[in-house]
Amino acid sequence: MGGGASSQLKDASPEQVQETFKTLSSEEQKKVADALALIGQNSGDAPTPGLSEEQRTMLKAAYADIDTNKSGTIEVSEFKSVMQKMKVQLTDAQIEGVFKRADLNKDQKLSYDEYERLVVKGLYEA
């Protein structure tokens, strides 16, 4: 991923993160806050990349919210839209690159499993 977005997220201050989440709807904010709280509760000194069923349920709800056309998959335009809402500072080409790497079966869509792998990798990547 080139480290650019990853280091931006790691270096973000709490105020910057709060400002980013203010752009989300109250329902989206609650889902993200609940998911982060669960991740915090379940992470020890050596976090494992697995998710609890409760975390997976929350992740599925977030996936459904991103899938705005309700096709059952996330398309690059939907992925770009959510990245922009979260004010992730990546160019369209960088966002497309992340999307293409996450699209394991190369069908130009993210299935739930591909999305989950992307999120878990992002959470536990050093």
From TrEMBL:
Keywords: Calcium. SUPFAM superfamilies: EF-hand. Residues 1-24 have a biased composition (Polar residues). Residues 54-89, 90-125 form the EF-hand domain. Pfam families: EF-hand_7. Residues 1-25 are annotated as: Disordered. The keyword Calcium applies. The keyword Transmembrane helix does not apply. It comes from the Eukaryota. This is EF-hand domain-containing protein. It comes from Durusdinium trenchii.
